[in-house]
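Backbones bend. We report:
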Amino acid sequence: MADRRQVLRFGALAAGVPAVLGAAAPALAVAPLDHHGGGDPRHPLVIGHRGACGYRPEHTLASYELAARLGADFIEPDLVATKDHVLVARHEPEIGGTTDVASRPEFASRKRTVVLDGVTVTGWFTHDFTLAELKTLRATERIPQVRQHNTLYNGLFQVPTLQEVLDLRRRLSRELDREIGVYPETKHPTYFRRLGLELETPLVRALRRAGLDAADAPVLVQSFEAGNLRSLRDDHRLRAPLVFLTAAAGGPFEDPTSYAEYLTPAGLARLSRYADGIGPDKSQVIPRTADGTLGTPTSLVGDAHAAGLKVMPYTFRAENQFLPADYRVGTDPNAYGRAIDEQVVFLRTGLDGLFTDQADIGALARGMAFARA
């Protein structure tokens, strides 16, 4: 029997990936991304969204490592803060849905209700736990009804710190003989700042300590808050590339400018003063029609490129329920549809990268999209 310690460490990384997807070829080296463009348009980045969360519980070292081994150029940790101001990787500060905290009687009294960016949320929050306490918890699958396979790994993996993710990035770059990038997102920076746990300083400190604060470093820092990016650029003097995330509706928290306004030619020109790229909802690149099928590309990619900004939309997933109606196969919402074909269509709009829950699909789609180019 395999050493359980090794299984616990990285979760039998190569096991459990559906054979129908095949083996992914190694991804190409990461090309620079800076204010002046750069990179190879034929080789857009494959970004492992929360790691390889289509195959492992999200934001675990196992998920990040599997993404890199399946062909991702970048791994993406979402960053929140602990009570003792350590950055850890969780999609949200609320951890009731991504750890086993709800089953831990010693932490039952920590459950409470907060107002998170104007929304009332009840649960357990990272900022009510020290790092040592968080390390006693174990990750669980966030959407078990969709990804039952991932529940096999419930209870095996810890909540990783940013430093552990950066250490993993360095090790994998050496082992795979190609540069693996890291694509951290600051989650709810205004919320954490008001708690006295601002995210910018520890993030910048960690990147500098790792030698990643440079325009051509294999790092991209992203945020849904424009003010957060401006602070990173102007106040903290971060030189690493910055990416502004947008949603299909609404706007950044406590920002009078909507996401739609940010994505106009004038808005993109303003963004280019401090940002290097945008991360739109994929529907802002190619919307869906009234019947749910894939529509006609917008002008966003061309407009952003004209402003000197890269375009890396989110999120590409393999399951039918996440696909356009004309790319679904069968009627099971959790079965795989024509995810490769969907990504090929998007890549041919001129994207500079894409976020995918299944990095092997992204790597394969990239090769197919430019096979005859």
Observations:
- Confidence is low (pLDDT under 50) at residues 1-38.
